[in-house]
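dumping the sequnces here before i forget
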Amino acid sequence: MTRTVFEKSDVIPLVTEVFRELGYNGASLSKITARTHLSKGSLYYFFPGGKDQMVDEILTHIDQWFVKNIFEPLEENEPREAIEHMWREIDAYFQSGQRICLIGAFALDGTRDRFATVIRQYFVRWIEALSAALVQTGISKETADQVSEETVAGIQGGLVVSRALNDDSFFERTLARLTQRLSTSLS
Amino acid sequence: MTRTVFEKSDVIPLVTEVFRELGYNGASLSKITARTHLSKGSLYYFFPGGKDQMVDEILTHIDQWFVKNIFEPLEENEPREAIEHMWREIDAYFQSGQRICLIGAFALDGTRDRFATVIRQYFVRWIEALSAALVQTGISKETADQVSEETVAGIQGGLVVSRALNDDSFFERTLARLTQRLSTSLS
DNA sequence: GTCTATACAGTGATAGAC
DNA sequence: GTCTATCACTGTATAGAC
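..and the predicted 3d for all of it:
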C-alpha cells in the first residue's frame, strides 16, 4: 500500500489542470478527488476556503508564472530578445494549443465577476509590458499599444478556435502570423 | 394574475442568454427557471431531453442565424459588400463586445466534446465562407485562408479580452483593426 | 402549456479517527 | 497530512393536477 504525501506546491498544478479541463462549475470536488487522488479531507486541509480558495491560489500561481517568465523579461531585458523569448514560452506553455488559457476561459464564464481583479490585471499587465518593450525598440506608443492589443487578443482567439476545430496546427499558424506581424512592425 | 403562454420559438432566445451568461454547468435549472420565469415543468415540456437538448437546439439556432446573416451572404452576394455587411452584423450581434460567443465559450469548456460537431462546423464554415469571398475579389487562396483565419480568431480573442478587461472599447478597437487589415489585403 | 410535488443522485463542506 | 463518514443543500428529472 503506497501512501503519497503532498505539499501545497505539489497540489496546485494538479488541481489547476482539473479546472482547466472542466471549468469552475464542472470541476466538482468528486472530479477533483478522482483526478488528483486526494480525498476531500486532504483538499480541505490545503484549501480550507473550498473551491473559491483553490481558484484564487491557482490564478495567483498562473499570474506569478507569467510575471516571472513573460512580463518581467519584457519589462527588464533587451526588448527584441524578450519578445522572442515570449513567443517560445507561450508556445511551450499552451502546449501548441492543447492547453487553454484558464484566465481567458474564466473571463467568458459567469466566473468572471468573482475573480474580476486578477483576470483584469493579467491582461492589463501583459499588454502594457509588451507595449513598453515595443516602445523601447523605437516605435511610437500608439503603434505599440495597437500591436500589443492585437497580439494578446490574437493568442486568446487562436486558443479558442484551435480548440473548437480540435486542431493544434491552427494555434501554430496563429502564433506564426502574430510573430510575423510583430516583427514587421519592429523593422 | 397574469399568465404568459410561450411557444418554443419564444423560449430559445430566453434560455440562450442564461447559458451565455453562466455557461453549461453554471446554468442550473433553478437559475434558468428564475431568469425565464418558466417552471421546470414547462422547461421539460419544451425540452424533454433536458439541458443537453436545450443546448443542442440553442447551438443549432445560433448556427442558423450565422448561416443566414453571415455565411450565405458571403457565399452568394457581391464579396466586398458581403464582407462589409459581415462587420456590421458582427458588431451588432456581439453588442459591441458585451455579448460573448457561446460557441467559442463552449469550445474552451469541458462542454466541447459533447457538442464537438456543431462547434467545429461553425468555425469551419465561417472561415471557408470568408476565404471564398476573398478569393472572389481576386486574391490568392493562400492569402485568403490566412486572412480569414486571422479574422475569425481575432474576433474571438477580442471578445475574450474585452470581457476580461470589462471594457467594450477593446472589442471595438479589435474590430476596427481587423476590418482595416482585411480591406488592406483586398487592395 | 402551465404549474407543484416528489424522488433521488450529486454537491460543497465539516468532524473526527488514524 | 491522510482518510472515511456524515451533513444539509442543490442538482436533474419525472408524475400528475389544472
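The domain at 56-186 of chain A is CATH 1.10.357.10 (Tetracycline Repressor; domain 2).
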